[in-house]
Amino acid sequence: MFSFAPSVFTGVPRYALALAAFSFQIPATVHAQTGAAAWQVGAALDATGTSRDLALGSRDRGLGLGHSDISAGGPLGAQLEARITAAGHTRHDRLETEFEEAWVQTRRLPAGWQLRTGRFRSQIGYLNEQHPHADDFAQRPLLHRAFLGGHWFDDGLRLNWTAPTATYFRLGLEALRGRTLVRETAAATNRPGAITLSARAGADIGRSQSWQAGLSYLHNRREAQVEEHDEAHDHAHTHGAVYSGRRMALADIAWKWAPEGNSRQEQVRIAYEHAVVTRINRYAGPGDRHQAGYLSAVWRFAPSWETGIRADVLSARAPHEESFEDKRLRERSVMLAYKPTHQQTLRLQFTQQRDRGGFADATHAVQLQYILNFGAHAAHAF
């Protein structure tokens, strides 16, 4: 049985600790007895060197630990399955750890329904539900760093319905606490603090192409407290939105091409996301809103090599009591990745930022990232 220092997991919900204790007591003989139905354990290590701190950046200058985790998942009988993930990273030269996932969900509800409860990453947008170490770039887009704290996970309930059709179509509802999205509020709020609605569709186009598109909506009942400091020198919080509001609408689309479906030899991946945040606070008018978007393209030109570019834009109205300040930032990234095996990635990335108002710390940076995966990991999204 594993033991952890109490200070590491301060404030972790009791169900997360209970599920963790249960998962680590599962005997090693389960795999031999049940085959594919066994629990599986995996880990990911992300080590990255960064030449400069980027505006709204999620990585410190120098060598640091990126999003790294240990994860275990598998069945709980015939009707349920579960997953627990403990994650860690360095921020401001300190190691921060947390339970990122600790959920249970149904496996066999009728008519395409599925229910999940516990702590999990929200399925809003295209990238958020994906593990950051599975991304194509060393840092998440500005949209996710500014509006979702990099990757938003929370405690709550999820209900999904998948249509029984050849074309993939899913509707989803999440009721979440919202505390990891907005840490400090201007006033007390009732639970749930955040509700998301999402719709997602996708299909194949012949043997070589596929696409997926989604619409998401966030109703956030937690109005962020206005902090009196110079935001131009802030970096993205470990978790929590830098710029938030009561409403967020998000659209995304992704397209992939591989000759005859053989993505191992060659593949092109294009993704686009755009979000609009409104009702920033009680003083905001109709024209006070945040917007962000990105367009990325990645080309696997050989079995072990990929290259990609991404263009990001951010426009925000930073609140200061009853007034607002315009802030605009552009970011361009180019990367080259070497993947000798499915478990390893060595990525070199250059990022150039341009201050269009309010981001005096906009700069450029070179990042060298190494990712190593061990054991089994949850399947990656489209």
Can you walk me through this structure?
- The chain has helices at 14-24, 30-34, 142-147; strands spanning 40-50, 62-65, 68-76, 80-91, 94-106, 113-121, 153-162, 168-176, 194-205, 209-220, 247-257, 267-278, 290-302, 305-320, 323-338, 344-355, 364-375.
- It is mainly beta and 382 residues long.
- The protein has one domain (41-375): Beta Barrel (Porin), CATH 2.40.160.
- Strands 1-3-4-5-6-7-8-9-10-11-12-13-14-15-16-17 form a 16-stranded antiparallel barrel.
- The two termini are 36 Å apart.
Short overview:
The protein has one domain: Porin (Beta Barrel).
Write the layout of secondary structure elements.
Elements: H1 14-24, H2 30-34, E1 40-50, E2 62-65, E3 68-76, E4 80-91, E5 94-106, E6 113-121, H3 142-147, E7 153-162, E8 168-176, E9 194-205, E10 209-220, E11 247-257, E12 267-278, E13 290-302, E14 305-320, E15 323-338, E16 344-355, E17 364-375
Main CATH class: Mainly Beta
Structural class: mainly beta
Q: State the low-pLDDT regions, or none.
A: 1-12, 14-36, 228-237
- What fraction, in percent, of the residue positions are helical? under 10%
* Name of the CATH architecture: Beta Barrel
User: How many β-strand runs?
Assistant: 17
What letter string, H or E per element, gives the SSE order?
HHEEEEEEHEEEEEEEEEEE
What average pLDDT do the residues reach? 85
* Shape field: globular
The CATH homologous superfamily is termed Porin
CATH topology: Porin
Number of domains: 1
CA radius of gyration: 21 Å
Report strand order across the widest sheet. 1-3-4-5-6-7-8-9-10-11-12-13-14-15-16-17
Query: What is the tally of helical segments?
Result: 3
First-residue to last-residue Cα separation: 36 Å
